[in-house]
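so my prof wants the structure for this chain in the tokens format not the other one, which i didnt know existed until like an hour ago. anyway here's the sequence
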Amino acid sequence: MIRNRLRSISGVTIAALLILFLTNCARNPYRSANKSYKKQAKNYGSTVRQQPNTLRGADGIEPANWVGTTNFNLRKPNMVIIHHTAQNSCEQTLSTFTMERTQVSAHYVVCRNGMIHHMLNDYLRAWHGGLSKWGSCTDVNSSSIGIELDNNGTEPFADIQIQSLLVLLDTLQHRYNIPAANFIGHGDIAPTRKNDPSAYFPWQLLAQKGFGLWYNDTTNVQVPEHFNALLALRLIGYDIRDTTAAMTAFKRHFIPQDSAVIGLSDADKKILWNLQQKYQ
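here's what i got, hopefully its the right format
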């Protein structure tokens, strides 16, 4: 009788332990990626802690003592680049960003249901911009925060997702004092390669909240006779080496309802003229 009870208890205990083990395993499927993150962060921490090298001058003389300055802090991001994932689920994107072979990442991923995943310390450099340029900045990854929105690029963005994005942008703007003009899209900095976030993205709403710039009513705007549209695009920040791509990127951001039409109409030039004044 006792032996049977012990067997029963033992069976229950083993089953409970098995369930607990499986639950713990399922609790975080990204444990391996997190372990890799911590290891890399530790390695970079070791690099930062290293004493700067002592170099010999032109005369070959080396300083007798190393002198470390007391005045420094961490580099801060000064731009926010917004993307859409071009994938079909948040889980798919998280998986993509935790596989070394993909060589792509972002600081934040905002899911369709509004959940925000903070995947990388803001002071570290994510691989989200690729070959890109904005104004005179040719290494956008080193000065920006990358935000990916779970969206395949062919659909409107969920309201709850945009609301979460606005909360995140407000936090980043206040934390790092990021200028309103420096909230831009991946397609803006890489017009020949990318089109994200798509024409569905509500840039005007973001600008109303202080994240990005927008134009005023252009009904009575008079464009100067010798207005140079390409120069205006360059002053805003666009890379104009491919003029068609730059114009398309501009229209996708500021005139999404007309972004499929190539070239700039007179109405488009009024908007561009108005925006040029804001970006100067």
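also thought this was worth mentioning. Residues 135 and 237 are 4 Å apart (CA to CA).
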